[in-house]
User: Which sequence fits this backbone?
């Protein structure tokens, strides 16, 4: 049995549609990488000649704005794929992918992926659904940025981080973002983000200890985010 057949995370992506022979082909051509925290998987403007499957760890997808600020568009967790949109459109990457913690990723060359695409209808459909899901998330994010206040966006983001990535044993959010990164997610200045976190802390909504954030009153945050 190939390592790709044994890999659990592929069940969470388009790769679950691949048959045994296709998985063996993928196992023979893929390359595994260890990406250290803070290192890029790929950068904006780079040619991505294949797709990356996230086996372990979390990364951020971000875009550098005209004023030099890093706008975080999405956080990517194990089981998700990166680079499929650029690969299919045959365009350079529109976003940068940077590790937020040590990661293990597998790279599958474009030639192999397109072979699966042409010969496996379910794989093609799964990948199209995945890209459509990304577009829906982008639409929702754009509406949130346009219609919600910074305070509402911060509440929404803290809930998203807990619901999506879980908590540590001490109750703190598993994924620890810097204040600058958190500000980049909600589209505000770092100083404004720090001020709002302090306000949430004083109001008893959260508890702050260094970079650690513990959500104390989830219901109030939900009402604030709506």
Assistant:
């Amino acid at each position: 049995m190939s390592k790709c057949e044994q890999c659990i995370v592929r069940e969470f992506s388009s790769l679950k549609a691949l048959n045994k022979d296709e998985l063996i082909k993928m196992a023979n051509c893929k390359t595994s990488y260890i990406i250290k925290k803070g290192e890029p998987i790929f950068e904006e403007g780079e040619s991505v000649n294949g797709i990356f499957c996230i086996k372990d760890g979390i990364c951020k997808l971000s875009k550098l704005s005209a004023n030099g600020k890093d706008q975080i568009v999405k956080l990517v967790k194990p089981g998700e794929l990166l680079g499929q949109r650029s690969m299919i459109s045959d365009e350079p990457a529109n976003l940068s992918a940077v590790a937020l913690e040590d990661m293990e990723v597998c790279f599958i060359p474009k030639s192999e992926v397109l072979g699966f695409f042409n010969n496996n209808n379910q794989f093609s459909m799964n990948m199209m659904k995945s890209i459509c899901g990304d577009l829906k998330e982008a639409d929702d994010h754009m509406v949130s940025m346009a219609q919600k206040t910074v305070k509402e966006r911060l509440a929404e983001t803290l809930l998203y981080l807990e619901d999506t990535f879980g908590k540590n044993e001490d109750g703190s959010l598993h994924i620890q973002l810097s204040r600058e990164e958190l500000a980049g997610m909600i589209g505000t200045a770092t100083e404004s983000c720090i001020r709002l976190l302090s306000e949430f802390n004083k109001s008893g909504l959260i508890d702050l200890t260094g970079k650690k954030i513990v959500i104390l009153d989830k219901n109030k945050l939900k009402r604030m985010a709506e």
